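Handout for the seminar on molecular recognition.
Each group receives one record of this type.
Step one: identify the two inputs.
Step two: read the structure output and locate the region that could contact iron/sulfur cluster.
Step three: write two sentences on what you found, then compare them with the reference statements printed after the record.
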Amino acid sequence: MIVGDRKPLEEILESIKDFKKILLLGCGGCVTICFSGGEKAAGLLASQISIARKDAGNPIEIDEATPTRVCEHEFIDELKDKIDSVDAVLSLSCGVGVQTLAEQYEDKIIIPALNTTFMGYPVEHAVWEERCAGCGDCVLGWTGGLCPISRCAKKLLNGPCGGSVDGVCEVDSEKECIWHSIYDRLKRIGKLENLEKVRDPKDWRTSTNAGQRKSEFKEAQL
Ligand code: SF4
Ligand code: SF4
């Protein structure tokens, strides 16, 4: 799922300092599951903003809503009256949600309250780790299901590098060397021969390096 971290309160307060009435939007999708942008997070942020603005002698009126998903037009259509009545919208959705709002409500100021970080997996309660960077050309089929693009600091396709020691990454001693883990996994499933082939350099044109990407469903693909 998409993971995000709430921006620091100081940054949020600065971004809304000129407004007297805002709509604070939570999102009922991914960011609810990672606790950073759901209804509860929106309620907490609204309280923090109200107190800070009151203390600063510059009170603000905050309306709140948490649609099922901010990233789909049909779920934010119903917010039109609320959005029309405020100076700006502060959104706890991911960057896709913020842009959906900006495209649908062209004349309204839309402000992100979240830093969208990565596509990740919960490794323990309230801790997520990156698992996919959306590179557009998945290699998990020959790496034993472990991603060297999002989990190797050097994004190697022919790893490990010379710095891997006892399964630990040379770039960050707190992290596993994913290429060490790929080796172990391929050995376990009897596929070590996958490592005998030298892989060509990755074609990064399928990633964000070539600009905005588009995905179109074609029945012929099925
Ligand atoms: S290889 Fe690319 S698409 Fe596959 S999991 Fe890694 S980043 Fe995601
Ligand atoms: S030690 Fe492993 S994970 Fe770290 S950069 Fe080298 S190959 Fe990548």
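Reference statements: The longest strand covers residues 114-124. The chain has two domains: 2-118, 133-207.
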